[in-house]
Each structure stands twice: as structure tokens, then as C-alpha cells.
Write a structure and sequence with these properties.
It is a single chain. The chain is mainly alpha-helical. It has helices spanning 12-32, 35-51, 57-61. Helix 1 runs antiparallel to helix 2. It is elongated and about 45 Å long.
Length: 65
């Protein structure tokens, strides 16, 4: 398990909202264009959010910020 982020103080509301946005937009893209493009969009966003999580690591570890 990755111990770089304190999961106790992780803002669950932010994760739910971003997950819903990714799901809704990828569903729209899959319906308009191609299901493969929608899946690639969803995984690309998840990968990007995971890769750039270092930007918010300090805020997650100290919720007073």
C-alpha cells in the first residue's frame, strides 16, 4: 500500500465529485464518438490525477491548510 498520502484526512467529497465528473464526461464521449475513446479518456484522467497528486499532498496531510 502507498503510504505517501494520509488517507484519514483525504477529502472524500472532492474525490466523489471528480469521479462523477470523469464518469459523466467519459460516458458522453463514449456515446458521441467511440467507446474506446471514452475509456481512454477516463483512464487518462485517473492517471493524470494520480500522477499530479503530489501537488495536493501537503494539503491532504495537514487539513488545516
Amino acid at each position: 500500500m502507498i503510504n505517501s498520502v494520509n488517507l484519514k484526512d483525504l477529502p472524500i467529497q472532492d474525490l466523489v465529485v471528480s469521479g462523477l465528473i470523469i464518469f459523466i464526461v467519459s460516458t458522453i464521449i463514449a456515446n458521441v464518438y467511440d467507446p474506446l475513446i471514452g475509456i481512454l479518456y477516463a483512464f487518462g484522467n485517473i492517471f493524470t490525477l494520480t500522477f499530479l497528486s503530489w501537488l495536493y499532498k501537503d494539503t491532504w496531510n495537514d487539513p488545516n491548510k
